[in-house]
Amino acid sequence: MSARRFAAMSRFNVASLALGLAFLYLPIVILVIYSFNGSQLVTVWGGWSLRWYTAFFNDEAMLTAAGTSLRVAAVSATLAAVLGTLAALALVRGERFKGRTLFSGMLYAPLVMPEVITGLSLLLLFVALGAERGFWTVTIAHTTLTMCFVAVIVQSRLGSIDRSLEEAAMDLGCGPVKAFVAVTLPLIAPAIAAGWMLAFTLSLDDLVIASFTTGPGSATLPIRIYSEVRLGVKPEINAICALIIGAVTLAIVTASLATKLSSRRGGNAAPM
Amino acid sequence: MSARNIFTRPARLAAIAPYGWMVLFFLVPFGFVLKLSLSQVVNAQPPYLPVFDLGAGWQVLFAAFSALSLDNFRLLLSDNLYLMAGLRSLTVAATATALLLLIGYPIAYAMARLPRRWQPLAMMLVIVPFWTSFLIRVYAWINILQHDGLLNQVLLALHIVSEPVVWLSTDTAMYIGMVYSYLPFMILPLYATLSKLDPALLEAAADLGSSPLQSFWRVTLPLSLPGVGAGALLCFIPLVGEFVIPDLLAGSDSLMIGQTLWLEFFTNRDWPVAAATAVMLLLILLLPLVIYDRFQRRQMVRS
Questions:
Q1: Do A93 and B7 touch (CB under 8 A)?
Q2: Distance, in angstroms, between B201 CA and closest chain A CA?
Q3: For A107, what's the count of Cα atoms within 13 Å in the CB-facing half-sphere?
Q4: Which domain holds residue B153?
Q5: Looking at the domain assignment, is residue B41 inside a domain?
Q6: pLDDT tens profile B97-132
Q7: pTM value?
Q8: Is B30 on the interface with A (CB under 8 A)?
Q9: Given A34, B21, B91, B216, which residue has the most CB atoms within 10 angstroms?
């Protein structure tokens, strides 16, 4: 009797998981399929075609915006990876230091802080400093947001590392710096890489903060897409979105393969 | 001297750069928001009258302090538009969070019940949509929900409705967009607590004669409350200030507070009122933010 009851439970579980995943993926799949729609009308299927991809690659303004976005994302993700890793090190290994509470608070708050607040406050800072708004202001703004995500990811990895590995390295004659570079850094490298990628996609994705902090001539891709979307659905936007989805999927698959490889190496190191 | 102690000092030095960065680019800017929210609007570039110039000496500073005005806040409190926006933000965020819990819990529960080796895959499948652009995900729903979009086509073909239903620019569309965009934020903390639940506890409950429903109600649910809290905060706080989703999916007859801030800033170019709106939004979120901070810290101590 109880076996049947458990079977019913698991059928419920299977159903909710399947429905949940369908809900998460169906809209994206539909969007990608419609990006290959040959028809001028977004809702009428006119056969498979690549015409909207060609349209995008001939759209000078969109291409410029995409270039800006990619540059901002690359620079800010790199800065965020460095700063976020340092922050994670301080939080996990620094034990108690003065201002630690404020530090962790400042790192966690941006994760949930409404973007309109972060965007507006950074803009006011840039205006007060007399900084010319453009590429660098957006980059700094994105670094500020994304380094917090890097810090959280690296922190959880750093916390799970077996410290006796470092101690062993030092017993064998390494200084703290050498032990860190030779032992700790390779172990947290996958987390830093994952953090970099998350920072990159978050930056590529951000509309609100970029809208506040950008200047004339440095519109990012989301800003361009947003201004088009407000006017209604356009087939060309479908193609751009499908391209971004494709790039992100490719990056995630690569990253997860890399993590798998390195964790296999880490798995060998752990029982040591 | 153990390795632990040797690492402490360099680790503290590592804090300097990110600490300085966050103070300069996260903490200090709030000061500017506060200052601007007390300033007067002028027709200039930037469009506000500076309240005080720190380089100008004490007398000027004193004069400036007496010129500080609460006019912006008086405006916010007297004009129904802002109060309604604040109220709407809170109710919308609370409703969306409740929906997220109702939909996210069964999914997280099912993930935690999967065979161990399937769980990482399920987790990745939930995270991947979070990596694809937020804007694109909202846009995908515009595609589906528009007048002659896929949803109406399907409903018409199945003869469920006889004429197209208006989905776009309604609260329904907004809630769909919110649940869709924030679902991973709800599922992941729930899954984290549910997967750590000791199955022996459920066996014990069953041995003591409780039905699966009873043991869920009296064992699983109470033990998963930390995950419920974390997920709810993680969704509720940013939802209150959400801009993109209500702007693209909801109607324009009633605005959320993030939208009024955007409107004041970009359309009306009234920076001081925008700043005052930001301060108001922060005040609304102060309590949830403090709870969230406590939560994070307790989580860190445990890990």
A1: yes
A2: 16
A3: 33
A4: 70-302
A5: no
A6: 999 999 999 999 999 888 888 888 888 888 887 777
A7: 0.85
A8: yes
A9: A34
